[in-house]
Design a protein that fits this description.
Layout lengths: L5 E3 L4 E6 L4 E4 L4 E8 L2 E6 L2 E6 L26 H8 L17 E8 L5 E7 L9 H13 L4 E8 L12 H6 L4
Parallel strand pairs: 8-9
Antiparallel strand pairs: 1-4, 2-3, 2-6, 4-5, 5-6, 7-8
């Protein structure tokens, strides 16, 4: 299924309203148009407005079900920082086709060793607007992706508002995806 394609939901599916961030249930046979599929989630539009459907529920869109891989948590080795950054590049605002790293929303990433082995990841992240209702969803998505990295046993993603985010924080790659360069 590609952006712009329409389909009817094959089953009732939980979703998140955009931009409010509130949970909703989309009934079976609801007509939806796919607007984007990035980072494992799908943004759809319909008579209800915009909503985000998680990867684990993509079968409702007629897409192949996803097999959730076992997370390699048994490693007591320190996490690889590059792998954490790569995972953060799989996190997207459901309204913007640029990942949170290239949007400039990740202010810091620190990996700290844990006494029993492995690492704790501490991330400071902002949003494009303080009132963004999708903030908790994006924050939880970032935490989940970080925890999927081998060696990461704990993760904290803190939302911060200083310094305020501006468009100048978008990377060159992000600007290219937005068609700004």
């Amino acid at each position: 299924m590609r952006p712009g394609e329409q389909t009817r939901l094959l089953r009732e599916v939980p979703a998140t309203a955009i931009p409010a961030g509130s949970p909703l249930i989309l009934p079976k046979d609801t007509e939806v148009t796919l607007t984007q599929s990035l980072g494992g989630s799908h943004t759809v539009a319909g008579s209800f407005g915009l909503a985000r459907i998680e990867e684990k529920d993509q079968d409702a869109l007629g897409l192949a079900p996803v097999q959730v891989a076992d997370v390699a948590k048994d490693s007591n080795e320190p996490a690889d920082e590059k792998k954490v950054w790569d995972k953060l590049k799989e996190v997207f605002d459901p309204e913007i086709p640029v990942n949170v790293v290239d949007l400039g929303l990740i202010y810091s990433l620190e990996l700290k060793p844990l006494p029993a082995g492995g690492s704790r990841a501490e991330v400071k992240m902002t949003l494009t607007a303080p009132g963004c209702g999708m903030g908790p969803t994006i924050q939880a998505d970032a935490r989940s992706k970080i925890l999927s990295v081998a060696g990461v046993k704990e993760a904290e993603v803190e939302l911060v508002w200083e310094p305020a985010w501006t468009q100048s924080m978008i990377s060159e790659e992000g600007k290219m995806k937005l068609g700004w360069v």
